[in-house]
């Protein structure tokens, strides 16, 4: 059994739900994995403290962080975390850092060590809209993703990790005008199960 930590986020930006948290809550048992979960606050700094605490407590072999990217049409595994906080909106504690490094003197970026290509292929095969993404933005999701990858690179060799954004859920945007893109929550739950299963069996070679 592989120890897997899957995290999600609280609602933010005026939303009352975050489909990442609803989907992670619905994950259930995944064959071959012992899954533990945590929900992170949408607060720079504090989100990382909660994730770090979960990593230390559960000692996972695989860490998959999940967040909402409203406006994206499908599930988007992220390829790269960038060493930059640059927010266009306040986090849930009213912070809005701009043009700030996440880790002083840290590398510009880290690649995900999840099998991004295989995950997209598996989601396609499952009939779930998906695409690889080359930016997790510069808000709290990218912040957590970068700090996770920095931790794994510097202190936890062999532990794999990455980030997956999910779109708004259809239930979340029901009744809103403008026909916002979304997926049914059931599909987002199934997508996360595919992400975990694929990450268990497919490995990416470390970057040169
Ligand atoms: N999405 C935000 C932060 C929390 C979340 O679910 C982001 O993409 O940064």
TrEMBL record:
Q: Which family does it belong to?
A: Belongs to the peptidase C15 family.
Naturally occurring in which organism (per UniProt): Rhodococcus antarcticus
The EC number(s) given in the record are 3.4.19.3
Q: Say which enzyme class the record assigns.
A: hydrolase
Q: Which UniProt keywords apply?
A: Cytoplasm, Hydrolase, Protease, Thiol protease
- This one is known as Pyroglutamyl-peptidase I
Q: Which Pfam families match?
A: Peptidase_C15
Q: Which InterPro entries match?
A: Peptidase_C15, Peptidase_C15-like, Peptidase_C15-like_sf, PGP-I_bact-type, PGPEP1_Glu_AS
NCBIfam families noted in UniProt? PRK13197.1, pyro_pdase
- Give the main location: cytoplasm
């Amino acid at each position: 059994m592989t120890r897997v930590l899957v995290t999600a986020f609280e609602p933010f930006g005026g939303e009352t739900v975050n489909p990442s948290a609803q989907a992670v809550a619905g994950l259930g048992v995944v064959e071959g994995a012992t899954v533990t979960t945590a929900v992170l606050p949408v607060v720079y700094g504090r989100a990382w403290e909660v994730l770090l605490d979960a990593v230390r407590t559960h000692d996972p072999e695989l860490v998959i962080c999940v967040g909402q990217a409203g406006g994206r049409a499908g599930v988007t595994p992220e390829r790269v975390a960038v060493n930059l906080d640059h927010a266009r909106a306040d986090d849930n504690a009213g912070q809005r850092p701009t043009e700030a490094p996440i880790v002083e003197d840290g590398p510009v970026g880290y690649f995900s060590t999840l099998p991004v290509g295989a995950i997209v292929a598996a989601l396609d095969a499952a009939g779930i809209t998906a695409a690889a993404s080359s930016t997790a933005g510069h808000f709290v999701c990218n912040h957590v993703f970068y700090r996770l990858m920095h931790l794994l690179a510097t202190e936890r060799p062999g532990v794999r990790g990455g980030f997956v954004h999910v779109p708004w859920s259809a239930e979340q945007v029901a009744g809103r005008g403008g026909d916002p893109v979304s997926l049914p929550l059931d599909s987002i739950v199934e997508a996360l199960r595919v992400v975990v299963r694929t990450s268990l069996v497919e490995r990416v070679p470390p970057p040169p």
